[in-house]
Amino acid sequence: MVTIGMNYKVIPGKEETFEKACTGVIEAMAGIEGQKESFLYKDVNYGQSYLIASE
């Protein structure tokens, strides 16, 4: 098992665009052999900070 995490700081006002784009990428990745799961996390204290974690 390998877990990869990537942090993003999004331009204020672009959060919805970023979230929609990530949702599309995560859905597309679901069909890749060896891809188990991916999640998008949003920092509740800093609304423009995100983490994508994939296994």
- Residue stretches low in confidence (pLDDT < 50, at least 5 long) are none
Total strands: 3
Structural class of the secondary elements? Answer: alpha+beta
- Provide a count of the helices: 1
Would you give an account of this structure?
The protein is α+β, with helices and mostly antiparallel strands and 55 residues long. The protein has one domain. Helix content is 27%, strand content 31%. It has one helix and three strands. It has one helix at 15-29; strands spanning 4-9, 38-42, 49-54. It has a three-stranded antiparallel beta sheet with strand order 1-3-2, with helices on one face. It is flat. The mean pLDDT is 91.
Give a short summary of the structure.
This protein is of the alpha+beta class and 55 residues long. Helix content is 27%, strand content 31%. The mean pLDDT is 91.
Give the SSE layout.
Elements (H helix, E strand, L loop, with lengths): L3 E6 L5 H15 L8 E5 L6 E6 L1
Antiparallel strand pairs: 1-3, 2-3
